[in-house]
Amino acid sequence: MKIASWLAAGLLVLSAPAALAQGADELPEADLGTITVTSDGRSERTVIDDFVADITSIHERNGQVATFDERICPAVINLPPAQAQIINDRIARAALLSGLQVGRPGCEGNVLVIFT
After folding, report:
1. Least confident of 13-17, 69-73, 94-98
2. Distance between CA 102 and CA 96 in Å, rounded?
3. Which residues make beta-bridge pairs with 111?
């Protein structure tokens, strides 16, 4: 089961850029104005570790991150619905091809793709 989870995660990472590229020609350009990026002084690694800790369940005794023993339900956050659906569909296809079960439309997300 652990191998299937890692395989699914790899497929998700590889398929997301292609899903975004498919609809890129159809999107109007947005005027984003000026964007200012600031830092609180933490290293990039610390920021990533803190973020992952905030959105995952870590077992109290062994510190392991939970794996899937159920159907996956992809959820894309911070994209317009049409683009989010493209990515959801690609994730679901990749999961099915790797032997995972996929939840029905409207299921509660347990595989999150977050755009910031």
Report:
1. 13-17
2. 7
3. 74
Confidence of residue 1 (pLDDT cuts 50, 70, 90): very low
Task: Compute φ and ψ for 105, nearest 5 degrees.
Answer: -55, 140
Pairing of strands 74-77, 111-114: parallel
Residues 6+ apart with CB under 8 A from 106: none
Contacts of 71 (CB under 8 A, 6+ apart): 100, 101, 102, 103, 107
Query: Is-contact 16 115, C-beta < 8 A?
Result: no
Token digits for 66? 């939970």
- Position 7 confidence tier, pLDDT thresholds 50, 70, 90: very low
